Amino acid sequence: MKRMITGLQPSGRITIGNYIGAIRQMINNQDLYESFIFVADMHAITIPQDPEALKKNIRELVALYIACGIDPNKNVIFLQSDNYYHANVSWILECNTPFGVLGRMTQFKDKSKKHQNFMAGLLTYPILMAADILIYDADIVPVGKDQKQHVELARDIAESFNKRYNTEFFKIPEPVISKETSKIGDLIDPTKKMSKSAENKKGVIFLLDSEADIRKKIMGATTDSEMNIKYDVENKPGISSLIAIYHELTGLSIAEIEEKYKGQNYGTFKKDVADVVVNTLIPIQERFNKLVNSKELDDILENGKNKTLEIAKAKYEQIKKIVGLDR
Ligand code: TYM
């Protein structure tokens, strides 16, 4: 069975963009692959985090994974920081990655502008991500479009390492990018992706938002003055993003949605989008509430820790030998 690995950062509360763009792909793949799903908590500290809030976000993310439908019996669920080999392998990769490529990463360019006096980890973060993937000999890495560049870098790092040491040690992973409609825009500025760390929370639907907040945010979403429910990302990003959410959550095609709402006003459509989002999120929230403080969650993480430590230790011992760090 081929192997899949992917994860989300607990750098804030999880959004419906993460759900549609990433978590649902994981769920769709869980019967097809041997799956490793983790919480990229070490990635989260590349930008300043309040320790208490981070701790809470980490636990909530694990509970949300499961509440959304990631089955702990079919996936190995673990915390990145529970597996210290990620950082060890990352260091070896860091010493095998040209400095220049890191500054060219789009996400680094964006985030380094946003955070004054950013730390070195923000620059080297994609190498830790490469370690996350390469340790597990992953065949596929499902991610949203914004992470494609990082998976491609992981491939480049693997290829150049293999070449330098004349080995086939690292498997070359394939990014699997979610389709265009699963990239969800911010509700207030729909040309930007909906992001956990957005400053204006009115544009972001969090999975744990109350029903009233969800409705308020969707009714207040930026649209245009045309009154035409048509999917056109370039010219009508606001309404297109709402259509995308509706399409992803109902399974109706874009053409069917356009036909269904022909001649209708935006208010009617927004109300229906809000209904669909509420109906999706409320059952997830109910499952989440039962899980978040349970011992079951600790057991799942302990199991994930032990399983992945075993795999990662073997890979680490081998890489040490390849680079000459063994005794
Ligand atoms: P992160 O936490 O920024 O995002 C997690 C996943 O959600 C996708 N995503 C979106 N999809 C659709 N619409 C949106 N508005 C939206 N926002 C985010 C992202 O593309 C991603 O798939 N570096 C990664 C975490 C990571 C990782 C890894 C992933 C660390 N190591 C190894 C895969 C394999 C990150 O910051 O994702």
Jot down its keywords.
327 residues, mainly alpha, Rossmann fold, Tyrosyl-Transfer RNA Synthetase, 2 domains, three-stranded parallel beta sheet, two-stranded parallel ribbon, 54% helix, 8% strand, binds tryptophanyl-5'AMP
Please outline the helices and strands.
Layout: E1 3-8, H1 16-29, E2 34-39, H2 41-44, H3 51-68, E3 75-79, H4 85-94, H5 99-102, H6 106-114, H7 120-134, E4 140-143, H8 148-164, E5 174-177, H9 211-219, H10 237-250, H11 254-260, H12 266-291, H13 295-323
Parallel strand pairs: 1-2, 2-3, 4-5
The structure holds tryptophanyl-5'AMP.
Residues 5-9, 17-18, 20-22, 40, 43, 129, 132-133, 141, 143-144, 146-147, 150, 182-184, 193-195 line the site of tryptophanyl-5'AMP.
Polypeptide structure, described:
- By secondary structure, the chain is mainly alpha-helical.
- It folds into two domains: 3-182 and 294-323, Rossmann fold (3-Layer(aba) Sandwich), CATH 3.40.50.620; 201-288, Orthogonal Bundle (Tyrosyl-Transfer RNA Synthetase), CATH 1.10.240.
- Helix content is 54%, strand content 8%.
- It has 13 helices and five strands.
- The chain has helices at 16-29, 41-44, 51-68, 85-94, 99-102, 106-114, 120-134, 148-164, 211-219, 237-250, 254-260, 266-291, 295-323; strands at residues 3-8, 34-39, 75-79, 140-143, 174-177.
- Strands 1-2-3 form a three-stranded parallel β-sheet.
- α10 (237-250) packs across α12.
- The longest helix is centred in the C-terminal third of the chain and has 29 residues, at 295-323.
- It is globular, with a radius of gyration of 21 Å.
- It starts with a strand and ends with a helix.
- The structure holds tryptophanyl-5'AMP (TYM).
